[in-house]
User: Fold U3 small nucleolar RNA-associated protein 15 homolog from Malurus elegans.
Amino acid sequence: MAAYKPVVVQACPKLGEKITQDTLYWRGYKTPVQIKEFGAVNKIDFSPVPPYNYAVTASSRIHIYGRYSQEPIKTFSRFRDAAYCATYRDDGRLLAAGSEDSIIRLFDISGKAPLRQFEGHTKPVHLVGFLSDKYRIFSGGDDYSSNLWDIPSATEIISYSEHTDYVRCGCASKVNADVFITGSYDHTVKLFDARTKSSVMTIEHGHPVESVLLFPSGGLLVSAGGRYVKVWDVLKGGQLLVSLKNHHKTVTCLCLNSSGQRLLSGSLDRHVKIYSTTSYKVVHSFNYATSILSLALSPEDETIVVGMTNGVLNVKHRKPEEKNEKSQKKRQPAYRTYVKGRTYMPKQEDFCVSKPVKRVLRKYDKLLRSFHSSKALDAVLEPPIMLHTPEVTVAVMQELHRRGTLRSALAGRDEKQVNLLLTFVARRVIEPRFTPVLVTVADMITDIYQPVVGQSAIVDKQFLKLQEAIGKEIDYQEELLEVLGMMDTLFATFTKKRDTCLEENKSNGLTEIIETDLNY
Assistant:
């Protein structure tokens, strides 16, 4: 009996990934370190002074981590309920945080008990930050108010009640010590000047605002809310410069690198997108395990820290630059040592001893070898194979059709299996490389399960999706044929004109020759 030959899966060429300087740079981070916190990480903030420790706010605690430490080097836990938005002052000596009990607490990094407590909000405070003069704090809460506080006297300077929904994000200008910005769930971003009694600018973002960011120059403002990241020109009265829609879910956090040339955005779709601030195009992307709530980049771009909804802190460090000094390790054999003799061609007088190669068959090949057609089809209808390697599923269907057992493999399936099968066919039938096989599969499924149409709402819905997909593809093909006909007409016209010009040139040449002969 001849040996079983495995199913041949048609290999399709893939586009090579474009390697850019950004790709090489952002890939230069080590494998991430995972740290488990007590709750969802709502804020990460790096100290602006060496050694660049970072504060992580999660649940009712604030943990201070060293650059390379996996355990907190300090903990602030004087909160009755959840803590929010722990932020460093520019000199790295003080830390301010809001809380669920509406009290703002100010901590000294070297101590444990709060230095000051600011009471004035009536609901949870999610936003706390320092103005650039280092002596005032601004805050925003769920009571729709934005307040300004004096640190030495622990008193409220002014309160703004212009937002009509929760105030959840904000930032201060590094250029002007009196200017700060707040973002709210009322879809607006407001710019306040401490010298005035009302906001000086209102920007309509269009979605609940989750994060705002000012460029170091103070002229450009970035807001994030919904799936959009928008860049505004503050100096032109809040004119919209660009609107970016590269995420699939709500954007929750923003961050700039140390040079201000790259903008990072984190989202609930588990991705961190990196944009160039000159072209505002995505130059790189990171993928994470769960939804992202907070993001921070160290002042020297050496560390990326991402906080997620499941309480996991993901820390990536840059790989150290390779030195040109000679390595002290033992020298390894050259590559040619390992491949020596592989290209040798045996001579006629040589005696060759062949080593049997053990062939490992995949699950569907083993089932096909045992003539279990239905089980082989089930094996390639598993979600990982259907999603990532659909060519394997189609190859097995083609093999079953060649054997004449495809109809029997498709028959006798329950509602869940038919739904899975129709979902795959409806999604992939429009791909040219799969169309010949999947059209045959669709015909057989329709013939087999036509008598039960109307008995299951789920199966009926999938049949309608298949019909819609095929109808759209037929419409596209008709439009393409029309365009092809127009192009053929144009090409025919150009060819006719060219032939006419050539004939005229030939006739003119003959006339000139005849006239020359007559003159002689």
Summary: The two ends are 91 Å apart (CA to CA). Confidence is low (pLDDT under 50) at residues 510-520.
